[in-house]
Amino acid sequence: MKQRTPGRIFIPIIMVVIIAIVMMVTPIGFEQQPGILGFISNTWKHFIETFANGMSVGIIAISLIMLLIVNAINKVVERQKFKKLTPQQQQQYVEMAKQNYFKRLLKSGRERQTDAEEEAIILDHGFDGIKELDNALPQWWLAMFYMGCVFCVVYVLAYSFTDFAHPDVEYETHNTAEEKKVAEWIKNNDITIDQAVNKYSDQQAIDEGKKTFESICATCHKTDGSGGIGPNLTDGYWINKTQDNLFYNIYNIVYNGSPKNPQMRAFGAKKELTGLTIEKVASYVYYMNQEKPAVTPNEGGAVPQGDFIPEWSRGGGAPASATPATPAPAQTDSLQTDSAGE
Prior knowledge:
Layout lengths: L6 H19 L9 H17 L2 H30 L3 H11 L3 H10 L4 H6 L1 E6 L2 E4 L5 H23 L5 H23 L13 H19 L15 E2 L7 H11 L18 H17 L15 E2 L27 H4 L3
Antiparallel strand pairs: 1-2, 3-4
Helix pairs in contact: 1-3, 1-7, 9-11, 10-11
């Protein structure tokens, strides 16, 4: 008669597995942290939320009661089998039961059958002199197999009828949380035109502004600001003058759009760019206009549009000999305003 696994051993193990499965299908309401420490923190928070869920607690409680019932039934079956043993077998069973369960488990893994036991389980067929034994599968193997079957069923049901393990749902949840964080950060940290500072001499700000310009504004103004669909941002001509200062004029046009050109949309007002980002873009456009050589029409730049503003020109010089063109409605763009702080 084999020793059964004590209830104090198998009940906690199975309960841990059941709790883990219930945690898998219990939605979480907190932001997960990365890394190993984050994993530990996430697991603990998830554990707390699982036991705060009434349905989860009910499932775990019912599972515990069922395991206690199974353990009681096992004890009854064990006693009935014990009565059928001979006195000598009963004594051996009692002595074995006194041994530590884990030591007995390790010992059983190293022992082999006696010759008599092996003879009793030899099957009546063989091949090439090799005989096959009718050994029982190891308990640990059977336990893993049955747990795998249970996990498979739970996983399929959870995937089919809940949001568990759906990458698209996980992405939407995570993305919504991140957008909320960004919106909160912008609300608390973003700037307006009154707080903007011209950073044309700050190389890091210029580099960041250039990246934004090339990804958004270059479509209309070209990467060098020489103009295409939108006006040339390197000359001294400006379609709009909404501010007395060139930098703030550029900032205002990028943020609020061009009053004279609907194609130049309001990147800030429409929340496409933050005030901090526009500050860097405006600084970069100012830097192109004041610190880099102008790209003339002969060099591939767009013909001047708007009015020449002496106080905004390089050193207050006279306008170039090019004839300014009347701004066409189709000609503007996203950064015309930039540069066209116009």
